[in-house]
């Protein structure tokens, strides 16, 4: 076999995927692996069974891969923190050793950051966060110290006083280095799984790290951190972390304060100070890979080392050794980032081929890199950066030349006929632009479905943006490498490179900001299904290698139509559903209820949360995309409190929102005027609702507004003016109560004949309300749902609902709640129940 690493890597990937999708016991896969190993031996020894040797070997590799993935992920000791902690926070004293330290700033930089913190009047708590990772060793209990194991991520939140008076805490922070033994006192807990469909799975993200992070700990004071004598240091890691710290300090010392975060991110992968706006801008222009340390950085580092050494005429063997040492060192310096690791392994294989005098094979290099990365950490297969890095590389390697042959056939033919004297002055510029265009287009096409799947973004001009941005990025990286070298060896000489890198960075950020503001520069999309992604890449392979496979264009078109029919058919079935579905998302203390009607239209009732200012971006939008929703027909805001409206701007940016309705007092208030101005700026139609209004266009369902009265007093509490609506369908009804309290309930009780419903949203997040029992007694619901968080739902409320035999669902306990009404009646389900079923 010419390239054995290719099928071996593909079988490893297949086994990891099967292991992640199934819950096969490890002992079963190990036993199965042993059986297949015996079968392989039999087929190799017995000649009459030799034809079965390859299938047996393939099955053995897959089973071994499954066992390897499961053992790395699920085999935990008895004293592991997974068996000790719960998702509820517990105050514990835990001792351990720091295995991934925070960035420890120089005193000068700390003082500058403290001054900046003082100037920021509305500084967020997250801006004062310092994170590091420890390997837990013991926990203090009532019985004394108990040995534990596992890895915990620690978040230290400095108080405002500590952030401002940093000199008092600098001695503690400087001790948080690699290998330092510490005793920590704070709230320890297991990370929670996602509570809503489509929500980012932070739990799995942590578990897929290397090493796997299983617990979290929050500390609110530096006094709760005590250091212990002695250390457990691996001196290689100690040196790498110390140097990385020194280099970060060098960047922040010499460059402009507003340029340092981005330069540090590009060179060392440190995103600690990058603003969300900067990250979003790079994402919207499709060049997020420029601020994530990747294989391109490795290429520039190699180039920066090779150029001066070649000028000095260093021996080729010595040059190769220096390059290999540099690549390995840079890989460790960037934290063994999977994209960097892939490029480094490829570079290592390439330069090692010089020593063994073997021809370099790029396909073997790519698959060897993937194989070694997955052996090191099988969970890296699901890392977004790793996937994009490998796909972009394969797109460039296998697609750019074919794209160039297809699009620039005539130009290439003329170039072959020309001699050097016939080529004009702009020949090399044209060639550079053509090559850059084809490489960018190949990388974009190779990563397009995966980018749309994860980020829900489509960036049509990314090829042009890449060509515009690349020279600036190249200047920053080269100047940054010079800065890091001179900043340590001879700081005064680093000023020029720091100045050039800083100004280039400012130009880059300004350019990106302007590109984002251009119309149609990016679009938000639902993203393809996993099956759609597989079909996309299958067609890409068939198109690139159609000549070898004897496939013509009509056959490709026919296959495309057949695949599209198979992929789209389930959506047609979903669209033809005759049920009314209500989904109450878990947003903490707030509200976000999505109602899907049988005629295909929808309503979003409230969109906000106290716990999450970005609830529209991180919870509601991912849920809607997971349901393949592209537009919102109507948003109804019950009232203007932030826990019901602060997610609206993010939704309007990401979806086509036709209309936003609320009661008249909402739009008349100061906060409501801001909302109204924002809606008009985005050309969203608005209207005021009050008792008696009926909303048309959602038939056969009927929607009626029951609160507030048309002439309710302005002095009434904001909560009591909440929009209350009733939806009727197939003889069943649902009552949405918003945040009404005693006065609002009294108004509803005066219309007792109209409020009888089968499902009720418990008013004001389930808090204690004096006349709630009268409301429940009048409505007589079979189901009640509460959108709230721990500590808000009153015991009295739950007792009243239990007394009236109401089936109660709570988002903070059950996750997202789904209620469906069809001809069979009402059915309910919760996200947690389905996720762990």
Automatic annotation (TrEMBL):
Domain Metallo-beta-lactamase: 589-783
UniProt entry tagged with the keyword Cell membrane: yes
PANTHER family noted in UniProt: DNA INTERNALIZATION/COMPETENCE PROTEIN COMEC/REC2, RECOMBINATION PROTEIN 2
Pfam families cross-referenced by the UniProt entry: Competence, DUF4131, Lactamase_B
Chief place where the protein resides: membrane
Stored CDD domains: ComA-like_MBL-fold
SUPFAM superfamilies to which the protein is assigned, alphabetical: Metallo-hydrolase/oxidoreductase (SSF56281)
One cellular component (GO) term of this entry: plasma membrane
SMART domains from the UniProt entry: Lactamase_B
Keywords of the record: Cell membrane, Membrane, Transmembrane, Transmembrane helix
Protein name as it appears in the record: DNA internalization-related competence protein ComEC/Rec2
Record membrane topology: Multi-pass membrane protein
Source organism (scientific name): Candidatus Brocadia sapporoensis
Subcellular location: Cell membrane
Segments traversing the membrane: 27-45, 52-69, 287-307, 314-333, 339-355, 437-455, 461-486, 493-516, 522-544, 556-572
Record-linked InterPro entries: ComA-like_MBL, ComEC_N, Competence_ComEC/Rec2, Competence_DNA_uptake, DUF4131, Metallo-B-lactamas, RibonucZ/Hydroxyglut_hydro
One of the GO BP terms on file: establishment of competence for transformation
């Amino acid at each position: 076999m010419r390239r054995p690493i290719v099928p071996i890597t593909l079988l490893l990937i297949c086994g990891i995927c099967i292991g992640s999708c199934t819950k096969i016991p490890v002992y079963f896969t190990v036993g199965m692996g042993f059986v297949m190993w015996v079968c392989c031996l039999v087929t190799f020894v017995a000649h009459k069974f030799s034809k079965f040797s390859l299938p047996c070997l393939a099955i053995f590799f897959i089973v071994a891969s499954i066992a390897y993935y499961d053992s790395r992920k699920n085999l935990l000791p008895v004293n592991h923190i997974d068996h000790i902690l719960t998702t509820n926070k517990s105050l514990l004293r835990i001792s351990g050793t720091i295995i991934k330290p925070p960035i420890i700033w120089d005193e000068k930089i700390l003082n500058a950051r403290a001054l900046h913190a003082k100037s920021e009047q509305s500084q967020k708590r997250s801006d004062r966060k310092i994170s590091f990772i420890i390997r837990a060793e013991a926990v203090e209990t009532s019985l004394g110290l108990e040995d534990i194991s596992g890895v915990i991520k620690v978040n230290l939140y400095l108080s405002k006083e500590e952030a401002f008076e940093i000199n008092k805490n600098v001695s503690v922070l400087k001790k948080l280095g690699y290998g330092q033994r510490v005793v920590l006192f704070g709230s320890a807990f297991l990370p929670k799984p996602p509570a809503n469909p489509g929500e980012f799975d932070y739990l799995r993200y942590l578990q897929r790290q290397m090493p796997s992070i299983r617990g979290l700990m929050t500390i609110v004071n530096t006094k709760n951190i005590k250091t212990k004598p002695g250390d457990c240091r691996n001196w290689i890691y100690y040196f790498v972390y110390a140097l990385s710290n020194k280099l970060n300090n060098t960047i922040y010392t010499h460059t402009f304060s507003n340029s340092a975060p981005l330069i540090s991110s590009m060179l060392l992968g440190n995103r600690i100070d990058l603003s969300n706006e900067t990250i979003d801008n790079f994402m919207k222009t499709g060049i997020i890979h420029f601020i994530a340390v990747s294989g391109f950085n490795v290429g520039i580092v190699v180039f920066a080392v090779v150029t001066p050494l070649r000028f000095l005429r260093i021996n080729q063997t010595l040059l190769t050794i220096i390059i290999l040492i540099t690549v390995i060192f840079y890989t460790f310096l960037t934290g063994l980032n999977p994209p960097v690791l892939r490029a480094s392994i490829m570079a290592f294989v390439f330069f090692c081929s010089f020593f063994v005098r073997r021809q370099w094979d790029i396909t073997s290099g790519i698959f060897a890199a993937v194989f070694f990365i997955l052996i090191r950490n099988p969970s890296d297969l699901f890392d977004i950066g790793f996937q994009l890095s490998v796909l972009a590389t394969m797109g460039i390697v296998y697609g750019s030349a074919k794209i160039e042959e297809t699009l620039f056939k005539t130009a290439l033919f003329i170039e072959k006929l020309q001699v050097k004297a016939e080529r004009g002055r702009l020949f090399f510029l044209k060639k550079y632009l053509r090559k850059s265009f084809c490489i960018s287009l190949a990388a974009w096409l190779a990563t397009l479905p995966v980018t749309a799947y994860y980020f829900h973004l489509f960036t049509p001009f990314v090829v042009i943006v890449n060509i515009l941005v690349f020279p600036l990025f190249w200047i920053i990286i080269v100047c940054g490498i010079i800065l890091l070298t001179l900043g340590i060896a001879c700081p005064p000489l680093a000023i020029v490179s720091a100045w050039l890198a800083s100004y280039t960075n400012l130009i880059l950020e300004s350019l990106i900001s302007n590109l984002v503001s251009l119309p149609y520069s990016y679009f938000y999309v639902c993203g393809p299904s996993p099956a759609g992604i597989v079909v996309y890449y299958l067609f890409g392979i068939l198109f690139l290698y159609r000549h070898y496979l004897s496939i013509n264009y009509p056959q490709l078109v026919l296959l495309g139509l057949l695949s599209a029919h198979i992929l789209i058919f389930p959506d047609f079935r979903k669209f033809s559903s005759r049920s009314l579905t209500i989904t109450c998302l878990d947003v903490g203390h707030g509200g976000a209820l999505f109602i899907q009607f049988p005629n295909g239209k929808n309503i979003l009732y409230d969109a906000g949360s106290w716990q999450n200012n970005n609830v529209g971006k991180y919870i509601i939008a991912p849920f809607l995309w997971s349901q393949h929703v592209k537009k919102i027909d109507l948003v109804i805001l019950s009232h203007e409190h932030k826990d019901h409206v602060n997610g609206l701007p993010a939704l309007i940016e990401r979806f086509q929102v036709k209309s936003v309705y609320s009661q008249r007092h909402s739009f008349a208030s100061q906060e409501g005027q801001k909302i109204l101005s924002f809606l008009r700026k985005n050309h969203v139609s608005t209207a005021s609702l009050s008792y008696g209004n009926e909303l048309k266009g959602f038939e056969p369902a009927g929607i009626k507004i029951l609160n507030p009265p048309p002439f309710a007093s302005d002095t009434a509490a904001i909560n009591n003016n909440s929009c209350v609506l009733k939806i009727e369908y197939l003889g069943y009804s649902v009552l949405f109560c918003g945040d009404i309290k005693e006065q609002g309930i009294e108004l509803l009780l005066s219309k007792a004949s109209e409020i009888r419903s089968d499902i009720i949203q418990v008013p004001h997040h389930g808090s204690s309300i004096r006349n709630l029992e009268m409301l429940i007694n009048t409505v007589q619901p079979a189901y009640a749902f509460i959108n709230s968080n721990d500590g808000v739902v009153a015991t009295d409320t739950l007792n009243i609902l239990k007394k009236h035999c109401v089936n109660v669902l709570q988002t903070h306990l059950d996750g997202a709640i789904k209620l469906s009404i069809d001809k069979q009646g009402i059915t309910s389900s919760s996200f947690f129940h389905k996720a762990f079923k």
